[in-house]
Design goal:
With about 260 residues, chain A is an all-alpha fold. Chain A has one domain. Chain A contains nine helices and no strands. In chain A, α4 packs antiparallel against α6, α4 runs antiparallel to α9 and α8 packs antiparallel against α9. By secondary structure, chain B is of the alpha/beta class. In chain B, α5 crosses α6. The chains are: A mainly alpha (about 260), B alpha/beta (about 250).
């Protein structure tokens, strides 16, 4: 029993330390964003990596999910002859939930992992120390461009995923269920209010902070060679996934039930 | 002039540095010797401010680097060059971008000037025409030399070397030693070299200090170290498997 309590205590302290480190890194990143010189080139490079290169996978997954959503809801709606409502259902689920969360999870898996692997390898091969000896702050040089690129690109990717998902639903609705295109589109527009779009984008903004900060922090915490880099990468993806879903739950509750 | 006073550092309760006193004169090359894992690299990282001591002072020209933070420490780093054990070249950048990193990041010099300076530094370390290669295309010895070129590119006043000859064949190692000696004579820098390679230590050092159990147990000229009566230093420099060092373990 005593051992169990001791273990619990240790784990809680470690968790609190971790949370502290996360907020420290966010604070330092916000500070270094405003310290000159400003290297736009590095941000653009990361924007390409995080945003543009994620387009194919985001396109495919959201297209298919939009279609699946339409198929599944059509199956239910058919029983009450209300297939026309799938337009609103697809649009709402995409914009409120699936667009932001799915895009964030994909980017966390694709980019969060690669940020950790990259920064972690730099840590274990002393490249981060080398940066400091060359009078360059690692947070300014490594974290700031990735952070800025993430908070710019993830919301854009989310809007894109929303549209592709809605198009997936449209394909099913119009071509398979024979709903008229004008009818489908007007049902889509009618179901949405600006709040849905803004809350979706706000969420993706928060998810971008989670992905970039956890990715970099796990990288900085990496110790012990290739094995350590592997461990850190796993930790980064797992932590990001959990935090994204938890934050999603929190914000959905805040936005729609309070 | 570097002066280290009563430096202490522990990791997870284990004392690594336990009251280190050391001074290095301007333009001098000090070699710190000691067994692997005895804290030599830790000491080096304290001198450049990468690690903060638990207690003690590290004075660089009278200013305590241990108390420096942020921008102040960054501008002091411009006076330093450091060669890392594993070279630590940035693998997302080319050789040219690596060597010219400091100039690109911290000066407003145009690319022509930077290219010229990079070429000059690479020539100094005996390399030519590899500017556009990436570090992964280089051999271990070339990496060390590129890293050395990067360390001296900003014309630092102090250069720190962390095991410059480890992992190199004896001929390449001697090449690096000669290079360090030449650079030292050419650009008159203060150097601190950490090594367990005695050939290297005798060749490049003006002064040798041995780190053992967290403190400096002896320091002196290479000749003084060679003729030491201290049995611990004696065992280390002769590389004997039995003696006072191994007895304690």
């Amino acid at each position: 029993m005593k051992n169990l309590l001791e273990e619990l205590g240790k784990k809680s302290i470690l968790t609190l330390e971790y949370i502290g480190e996360v907020f420290m890194l966010i604070g330092q990143t916000l500070f270094w964003i405003f310290v000159p010189p400003f290297k736009v080139k590095y941000v653009l490079y990361q924007m390409n990596r995080i945003g543009v290169l994620s387009l194919p996978i985001v396109s495919l997954t959201s297209l298919f999910l939009g279609m699946v959503l339409a198929f599944q809801s059509a199956y239910q709606m058919k029983q009450i002859s209300a297939e026309i409502y799938i337009a609103g259902l697809v649009a709402l689920s995409m914009i409120r939930e699936i667009g932001p969360v799915l895009t964030a999870l994909i980017v966390a898996g694709r980019i969060g992992a690669s940020i950790t692997a990259e920064v972690g390898t730099m840590k274990v091969t002393e490249q981060i120390d080398a940066l400091e000896t060359l009078a360059t702050n690692p947070i300014k040089y490594l974290v700031v461009p990735r952070f800025l690129a993430s908070i710019i690109m993830l919301p854009i990717l989310t809007i894109y995923a929303d549209m592709i998902g809605i198009f997936g639903g449209y394909m099913v609705g119009v071509w398979k269920l024979k709903i008229s295109p004008t009818m489908y589109m007007s049902m889509t527009y009618d179901s949405l209010v600006p709040k849905d779009i803004f809350t979706g984008l706000f969420k993706s903004f928060v998810f971008a902070i989670i992905i970039s900060i956890i990715g970099c922090m796990e990288g900085f915490r990496t110790e012990g060679g290739a094995e350590g880099v592997g461990r850190a990468t796993t930790a980064s993806v797992v932590t990001s996934f959990i935090l994204i879903i938890a934050a999603d739950c929190l914000f959905t509750a805040l936005f729609y039930f309070w | 002039m570097i002066e280290i006073r009563n430096l202490h550092k522990s990791f997870n309760g284990k004392k690594v540095l336990d009251g280190v006193h050391l001074s290095i004169d301007k333009g001098q090359t000090l070699v710190i010797i000691g067994r692997s894992g005895c804290g030599k690299s830790v000491l080096l990282k304290h001198i450049i401010g990468l690690m903060k001591p638990d207690a003690g002072d590290i004075l660089i020209d009278g200013v305590d680097i241990a108390k420096m933070r942020g921008k102040e420490l960054e501008s002091l780093h411009l006076n330093f060059g450091m060669l890392f054990q594993g070279s630590a070249l940035f693998d997302s950048l080319t050789v040219e971008e690596n060597v010219g990193f400091g100039l690109i990041e911290h000066t407003k010099k145009d690319m022509d000037f930077i290219r010229k300076r990079v070429k000059e530094c690479l020539t100094m370390v005996g390399l030519e025409g590899i500017e556009s290669l990436s570090p992964s295309q280089l051999s271990g010895g070339m990496k060390k030399r590129v890293a050395l070129a990067r360390a001296i590119c900003m014309s630092p006043k102090i250069v720190l070397y962390d095991e410059p000859t480890t992992g190199l064949d004896p001929i390449m190692a001697d090449g690096i030693n000669t290079l360090i000696k030449e650079l030292h004579e050419k650009i008159k820098v203060t150097s601190v070299v950490v090594t367990h390679d005695m050939v290297s230590a005798y060749k490049i050092g003006d002064k040798i200090a041995m780190l053992y159990n967290g403190s400096i147990i002896q320091s002196g000229s290479p000749d003084e170290i060679k003729n030491t009566s201290n049995p611990i230093v004696q065992q280390f420099i002769t590389g004997a498997a039995t003696g006072p060092i191994t007895k304690e373990v």
